[in-house]
Structure formats: structure tokens, C-alpha cells
TrEMBL record:
Pfam family, one: Acetyltransf_3
Organism of provenance: Actinoplanes couchii
Domain of life: Bacteria
Occurrences of domain N-acetyltransferase (ranges): 1-117, 139-305
Name of the protein in question: N-acetyltransferase domain-containing protein
InterPro entries listed in its UniProt record: Acyl_CoA_acyltransferase, GNAT_dom, N-acetyltransferase
Length: 316
């Protein structure tokens, strides 16, 4: 299923060309059954034939089925695996809201829609990138995915990266796989953006940069980053921080972009300052350290106006 096609059909409000008959999704033009949809133990499930995907069929069917079902009940629920981001996109486009993680084997994401919810797509806090990646001609930032497990393992096996992680502990193989496999689902939920920094000169992944949107009520998010040793000192992380910040301020409602760094990490402080961040506070014993210790944290902040001043050369 083409995700962009789904979004275009929803945004344009075009005629879907499908109808629901019993538990079948029917193509009105041909009369062919192109999928199934229904309630199983009170949970909405759907399936679309491969030849019918990419036409907005799933979104239209879920929307139409939900409209009818919610005249007879107060709530509908979908349970979707973490890795099935196409179904998650369908749920959002059909007005469902992610509300919980259902623990168990497997873990499932719970999406719900109530009878009095507005009949329109659920707004996303963190939209997709405008293309497959962000680039300034020297680096590119692309979404982390499950194919990055080997790279992510190598990055988070670096002692310097471990020492500056929160908490400063090695990541298990399971944690690394989950981080990569579930990155898109976290992005769709508005929780986090995980990006791989690619060095365009070599075409190789050089590091990661992440956006954590933990305080949407304050329009405040935090960035974090790590770089392989071979790519440090080349300005790639500064470029990544600027690229991410430009996208954040242009495409989201985030007003304050923050970052934290250990007082001993002079290199990271220089990265932030070159990217336009300003040191705002010294937070004593804020971070968990090794062996039960606590570490101080330097707090930096960036606003859209700071980037503008830097671009125009003001304040130098």
C-alpha cells in the first residue's frame, strides 16, 4: 500500500469507489471483492488484496465501516503490531487515536475511535519528512529502520557513546532491535524521531540524531546525538543538529528545542554552540551515572529566531 496515496486521497476527500457488503470490501466499478473488514471479538480488523493496494481502499473502508458501526456502539478499537506501520497510518487517516500498548506476546498498539470523535484524520504532532531524507549536500538525515540494526549495534558499542547515554549502560541486542524496528511507529505516535546521519562523501552511516517530544503541552522537545569515532571532529553532527532544527521549526509546533550535555563533554558543547544553541542552565545531579552515581547536566536551548540570527550573521 502506498502511504502517500492513502494520505492524498484522504486530504482530497475523493470518492473512494468502494462499498462495504457484509464483511467484504467491494470495488464499485468492477463489483470485485478487494478485501475484508469486520469485528472480531469487538476488535476491528481489515485486509486488502495486494492488487487493490495503493488506491486508498483501506482508509476508505475503515472510515466507512467505522461510520456505520459507531451508530450502534460508543467505541471501536484496533490492535496493530508495532511493525505494521501501514495499518497504523490507515488508523490515523480514518480518525483513530493511539491510546495504549497492550502488553503480551506480541505487544500490540491500541488505536480507538469514539462515536463523538470528529470524522477526520487524527492530527500528527510529528509529520513525515518532505522527502525520503533531509540533506545539505554534505550529510543526509534519513529515518532509522530495522535494516540499521548492525550499524546501531556498532554505534552503541562505542565506549564514548555508552558513557554519554542516559543511563550510561550498553544496550542489549533486544533493545537495539526494538529501537530500530519500532522507530516509525514512535514517529507516527508523535513520541520520537530517530534519524541516521549519512556522510554523503562516503555514503556510510556516521551517527544518529534523535528528537524526543516529551512535552508537547509546552511545545518543547529535546535532541540527542551520537557519532562514530571515525566521523567526529568533521562538523557532521553540527550540520545534523541544524538540519533537524530547521525541519522542526518549519514543520512542527515545537517552539523550544533543547539539549543536555555533560560538563566534561567539551566536544558536544561546541557542536551545540556552533549549531546556534545557547547555554541556559547548569542542572546539578540531574542525570543517572554509573554505579548509582548522579551527574551534572548543562542545559542548552534553541529558538527559531536564533537560527535566523545565525543565518543573517546578526549577533556575531
Amino acid at each position: 500500500m502506498d502511504q502517500n496515496t492513502e494520505n492524498r486521497l484522504e486530504d482530497a476527500g475523493t470518492d473512494s469507489g468502494i462499498r462495504i457488503r457484509d464483511d467484504s470490501i467491494v470495488d464499485e466499478r468492477t463489483g470485485d471483492i478487494v478485501g475484508r473488514i469486520g469485528l472480531e471479538h469487538g476488535i476491528l480488523t481489515f485486509e486488502v488484496a495486494p492488487e487493490a493496494r495503493g488506491r486508498g481502499v483501506a482508509t476508505a473502508a475503515v472510515r466507512e465501516f467505522s461510520r456505520s458501526a459507531l451508530t450502534r456502539r460508543d467505541r471501536l478499537e484496533m490492535r496493530i503490531p508495532w511493525e505494521n506501520t501501514i495499518a497504523q497510518r490507515v488508523a490515523l487517516a480514518a480518525g483513530y487515536t493511539r491510546e495504549a500498548v497492550r502488553r503480551g506476546t506480541p505487544e500490540l498498539l491500541v488505536y480507538s475511535r469514539l462515536s463523538d470523535d470528529p470524522e477526520k484524520p487524527t492530527p500528527r504532532l510529528l509529520p513525515d519528512l518532505p522527502g525520503p531524507e533531509l540533506s545539505d549536500g554534505v550529510i543526509a538525515l534519513r529515518p532509522l529502520n530495522v535494516t540499521d540494526v548492525d550499524f546501531y549495534t556498532r554505534l552503541h558499542s562505542d565506549p564514548d557513546v555508552i558513557a554519554t547515554s542516559v543511563p550510561p549502560e550498553p544496550k542489549s541486542a533486544g533493545e537495539i532491535h526494538r529501537r530500530c524496528a519500532r522507530a516509525e511507529a514512535q514517529w507516527l505516535a508523535g513520541n520520537r524521531v530517530d534519524l541516521v546521519i549519512t556522510d554523503l562523501a562516503s555514503g556510510a552511516p556516521a551517527g544518529e540524531i534523535c528528537l524526543y517530544y516529551q512535552e508537547p503541552q509546552l511545545s518543547q522537545a529535546m535532541i540527542g546525538y551520537s557519532t562514530l569515532k571515525a566521523y567526529r571532529g568533521k562538523g557532521l553532527t553540527t550540520r545534523a543538529a541544524k538540519l533537524l532544527a530547521l525541519w522542526v521549526f518549519a514543520e512542527t509546533d515545537i517552539v523550544r528545542l533543547t539539549a543536555g550535555v555533560l560538563p566534561t563533554n567539551i566536544g558536544s558543547q561546541r557542536v551545540l554552540e556552533k549549531a546556534g544553541f545557547t547555554r541556559e542552565a547548569y542542572q546539578r545531579l540531574r542525570l543517572p551515572g554509573p554505579d548509582g552515581t548522579r551527574l551534572d547536566d548543562l542545559f542548552y536551548v534553541l529558538f527559531a529566531g536564533d537560527l535566523l540570527m545565525q543565518a543573517t550573521g546578526e549577533g556575531e
